[in-house]
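hi! just following up on the protien thing from before. the input was this:
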Amino acid sequence: MDDGDVQRILVVMAHPDDVDFGAAGTVIGWTERGIEVVYAMVTDGDAGGFDDAITREEMAELRREEQRAAAKCAGVEDVRFLGYSDGRVEATLGLRRDIARVIRQVRPDRVVMPSPERNYERIYPSHPDHRAVGSAALDAVYPDARNPYAFPELLADEDLEAWTAREVWIVGGPTPNHYVDVTANFDRKLAALKSHASQTAHMGDGLEEMLRGWMGFSATSGGLPEGSLAEVFQVVDTA
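and the predicted 3d structure came back as:
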């Protein structure tokens, strides 16, 4: 689906910073073209960080604020948190309903999500929370959000009509088929990630070095010109 046919995009991720590691450069390109992008974070990231002096409640509040700041770097104003416990996410009917609710609220043309599959080439995207959110989000796209008889309470109690998202972009999976050149947006992607100071400050200059190495490899794999930096996705037609 061409971006010219897209008005709204919903990004569903497990933790604050997931979208910025995996897709912020691409999101920046979308918002610059006038596409509305909404973030939905399933957890508040309360199991993250490195400071034992910070309570889990304080960490959750901090990471929500970090994600809002990172979103602004990418041109995103609407950031929603579903309140699930970090490290304990399962692809339950309840999570499917909660994501279907957001899909019906936002009514996106495209939904971005983590892969429900384990990636043995790069294990880090395959965090259990990521896989659970990917599975639930894909089920929420098809069939839940589009089926008026799935979770009928969404219509009866909340007046949320069924909605069909026409395309899914999967992040971190083992079989990517789409490479986005985000070289021009790298500095803003890096700024977004630095907004997650509780997770990235300890890396110093190593964060930029890691990103350039990882994204440069992705660009080479996608056949992009030498020196390019890329983000990769598996694009699935769900119309």
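Residues 56-73 form the longest helix (18 residues).
The first strand starts at residue 8 and ends at 13.
cheers
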